[in-house]
Amino acid sequence: MVMPVEKIKLVSENLNVHPLCINNDDIVSYSKTAMYLPHLYMYKEEYSGQAPAVKVDVEQEDSFALVVALCRGNLTWLSEVPSDWSIIVYEKCQHTPSTNYSVLTAHQAGAEECNGYLDYIVDHYDNLRPVTVFMHDDGLYPWSKWKGKSAHTPFYSFRQVVNATQEYLTPTQGYVTFGVTTITEKFGSDGYHGLGQKILWPYFVTKNMTHPPDKISFKPSANMAVRREAILSRTKSTYEALLNQARYARNVPDHLDSRQICCAIERMWHMLFGESPDLPMETRVTDLMQQSGNLGYFNMSEKMSEG
């Protein structure tokens, strides 16, 4: 049961540290790593923004939305998107895109993909399609193969993304990632994103996950498919708060910029959508396709040695 929402203004005028955060008991002292930025409001709800369970209708016919984070990339592959899919493109690099598709601007100068993804979730929270696919403009392998083992996905065409989504995002599976390489890191480790993870942790608390994990496994680049029920497992105010963290981050001494916040979120998308920190095998499309022998068009050992 979700408690009545109490809007609490934590910080307004400056970028100083605030000692209060939310856990599943109440608003309590967290630590001085819990920084809140101007205009950011936190909402007091049981289990730190965990929404009431949404009933899954396994009989429903899926419909799909594609959300693309654009940064000077090539969008010719959008011609492969099925005609009954909706397409929403968010420009994150402050230039006028050349495309036949309607392009929205992510709300942050020099934004990262998390700005566009969170913009979409907040704007469409009440009318989400049953399935949303989130991708970079260079998410397909031909556009990111120069990264070698860090290629965004193993897919050569968007049709392969469609097929993988329909096969592995089953009615009872709320999230899958299309990433290639699995990385395991210590939560909050010293580095570019560690402080960001500590700052954002209160938004990820749930009834079954009350303390930060020791380690987090993830696949870089945040190309993924998510069911509506998984998105709605968190309250809209949680996504608004995360978006504000990224939107109002400032590149000033001793504070995080938008990229650092988004790099932290990139490592925790699966946890936001209800998966455990170790990134369960059923969420790893590339690994599942390797195991079943369905990744024949993409020989990992050979292709990953390129570049």
Q: How does this model look, in words?
A:
- The protein is an alpha/beta fold and 307 residues long.
- The chain has one domain (56-307).
- The chain contains ten helices and twelve strands.
- Helix 1 (113-124) packs antiparallel against helix 6 and helix 4 crosses helix 7 (258-266).
- The longest helix has 12 residues, at 113-124.
- It starts with 5 loop residues before the first strand and ends with a helix.
- The model is unreliable at 1-48 and 297-307 (pLDDT under 50).
Quick recap:
The protein is of the alpha/beta class and 307 residues long.
Write the layout of secondary structure elements.
Elements: E1 6-9, E2 20-22, E3 27-29, E4 41-44, E5 64-70, E6 86-91, E7 103-105, H1 113-124, E8 131-136, H2 141-144, H3 158-168, E9 175-177, E10 183-186, H4 194-200, E11 215-218, E12 224-227, H5 228-231, H6 236-247, H7 258-266, H8 269-272, H9 285-292, H10 300-303
Parallel strand pairs: 5-6, 5-8, 6-7
Antiparallel strand pairs: 1-4, 2-3, 8-12, 9-12, 10-11
Helix pairs in contact: 1-6, 4-7
